[in-house]
Each structure stands twice: as structure tokens, then as C-alpha cells.
Amino acid sequence: MTIAYVANSRFPSEKAQSDHVMQMCAAFASAGHRVTLLVPERTPVMADDPFVWYGKPKTFAFERVPCVDTLRWLWLGPLALWIQTLTFVLNLRRRIRDIAPDVTYSRELYTFGFGDVPGLHVWESHALPSSVWAWRLIRSLDRIVTLTSASKERLVAKGVSAGRILVEPDAVDPALFDAAPSRENARRDLGIGEDEFLCLYTGKFTTMNMPKGVDESVDAVTALRSEGRKVRLLAVGGTPEELGRYTSSVGDGIEFLGHQPQKDLKRFYAAADLLLMPFPYTKHYAYFMSPLKLFEYLMSGVPMVVTDLQSVREIVGDAEAFIAKPGDVASLVVEIRRAMDAPEDARARADAAWKLSSKYTWTERARRIAAWLPTSV
Questions:
Q1: CA angle, 317 as apex, 312 and 323 as ends, to 5°?
Q2: Half-sphere exposure of 125 (CA within 13 A, CB side)
Q3: SS3 call for 46
Q4: What pTM does this model have?
């Protein structure tokens, strides 16, 4: 099968979206499909060569498509996105015709909204729109991949046939943990004492301007330190703006680092005693998200604390994680304390999570999606 994967974003970038796209293209290619990743020619990017940035072999084609990069001009407001998108898609259509794919696959709905686009139209939905135009376009698509059951239910309620929708959560690449350093070496390199209990948060600190639980993590660790416990918090992955907000108000034992290349995360996981994913309650977090960090946490072999949200419960339960109430610092403190005071219980949950992680690899995800497409045409 020939797949044209379209990603209308800076590439690679500091956002999880870039990592997701790269992983899926590599996974489709590893399953034997011919893949071309098409992205707009935009700046700034984290690296010119995404294969080097993500540590991936060149198993698929990568092309930058010309566009008018108006998103740099903030004074244009919403018009900037429309100009950039339209010029990208117009050039994109010509290139896709040359590729003649069996499938055009994209996370961006408007990829399919500007005239004829060759191939089976497959949209991977990461957010649901509100406009009438968008919903009309959605109903015209051949197939839709969603991240959660709630997303599928909402699409069906809007008139999309359930048979055209596949629920596939995000995933993890086992290679992320290849050649990981020892706990001792990782902690020494990061300056973590052997008698310290390290809580680790990875990923951006906000999504769509919504906090992701870093504030609760800071408050919980601060409370535990006030009890005399030798606990530290390391939050890795903030943007420069996020780092500016948090680093001005942190106390002892709390550290923030900016975005790290995916291939470098293994040393942070190797050093950690507990992983934190304390998303607060929002409609998006509760029903529609599928955070990459959750699947990395599963495979890391490190115990985790998550919050009690439906989207999270679709993946893990009490057997695999400590579960706190969303937005409740006191509850988060209780669960961190439980992990610290019951190491055998924490280890049992981490082992159960690791066993579950084999279901959620990018290779398995791509295999299931590709197998579903031909039987659904």
C-alpha cells in the first residue's frame, strides 16, 4: 500500500504531534508500506533532518512542500492560518497526484477540504471541530481514526457511520528504552542523590493553553518535603514560555528543564522512582486525549501516578497505576506517599503496566490501522 502522510506543521518541532507523526510513518514503513511524509516548508524547526533528530532510519520518504509561511506574521490573526494552509494544500495536491497514493492520511482535517485529493481519505482525529463546514467534510471522509471511545461516540452522534471509525489510542516505541543507562549512572549525571525519591514529569506543561498538572505536582512535592521527606520533582519538556513561568516560583527540590530529544528521555526514566501524570479535569483531558507520556510510562518499568479520567481509565486501572483525583493536591500527595511507603506494591503495578505496554507499540498500532483500511473500503 502506498501512503501519503500529510502533516501541516513545523517539522520536527518541540510538540508531541511531530513525534507522533514520525512514529506512525516509521511504523507504516516497517509494516512494508511505501510512505511519503509531506510537510510545509516552515521555520523554525528543531532540525533540518527529522531522521537524525528522532534517531530513525530513513525507511520512508520525507519532503518539504512550499507554502506562504504567514503564521510568522501575528498581525494577520486567524487569516494567517488560512493563507498558509491554502497555499500548502494547493502545492500539496500537485505532489500527491505524482505519488498516486492508495491512502492520503492526515491529522489535519482541512487537508481534504480544498479540491480533489487522491487516494482513500483517512483522517486521524485529535480534536473535534465546531463549524458546519468541518462537520460536512468529516461526513465525506472514507475513514476516521480516533484516540478514545468518547471521540467515536461523538462522531457517531453527529451522523458518521460507526463502521467508518476505528478507535486507536497513541503508542510507544520500545527503542526509546534501548541502551538505557543504569539507575546509578543516570542519577549521578542528573545530580540526584541515592537517598532522594525522584518524581518525574515529562512533556509539555500545557496543551491548548490548558495546564496539565504541573502546578499540582509542585504543590504535592512541596507538601511532602514539608513533612521532612527527601522527595524531588523534575519536570522535563517545557517550552521557553512555560519555563519562564515556573522557574520564577519554585522551591528547593523542584527543577524544570526544557524540551529534550525523544531519544534522550531514557536517562530521565532510568533515574526516576515515580512518574507523574496528574491531568486536571477538563472535557478534553477527560474524554478525548491520548497522551504519549502515558504509553512511555507504561513501558518504562517505573511506577506511576495518574488521575481518574475516563480517557486514562481506558488504558490503565488500579492494577497498573496509583490513581488520584483530578485537580486534588491532597489526593495526589496521598498517592505519592503510598508509592513511597509501599515499594513492593509500586513495583507490582509497574510490572503490570510493562506487560500491558506490548499492546500499545507504534508497530502494532500501524499494523491494526493498515489491516482495517482495505477491508473497510
A1: 75
A2: 30
A3: coil
A4: 0.89
Inter-residue contact 202 to 212 (CB < 8 Å):
no
The CATH class, in words, for 2-171+361-376 is: alpha beta
Under CATH, domain 175-359 is a member of which superfamily?
A: Glycogen Phosphorylase B; (3.40.50.2000)
> Which residues 6+ apart lie within 8 Å of 28 measured at CB?
3, 5, 35, 60, 366, 370
- Separation of alpha carbons 178 and 201, rounded Å: 20
Distance CA 159, CA 288 (A): 18
Task: Cite the residue boundaries of each domain of the chain with CATH code 3.40.50.2000.
Answer: 2-171+361-376, 175-359
Q: Give the mean pLDDT per block of 10 residues along the chain (377 residues).
A: 94 89 96 96 90 92 94 85 89 91 94 85 91 92 96 95 96 94 96 96 92 95 96 94 79 90 91 98 94 96 98 97 98 98 98 97 96 69
Residue for grid cell 477540504: 113
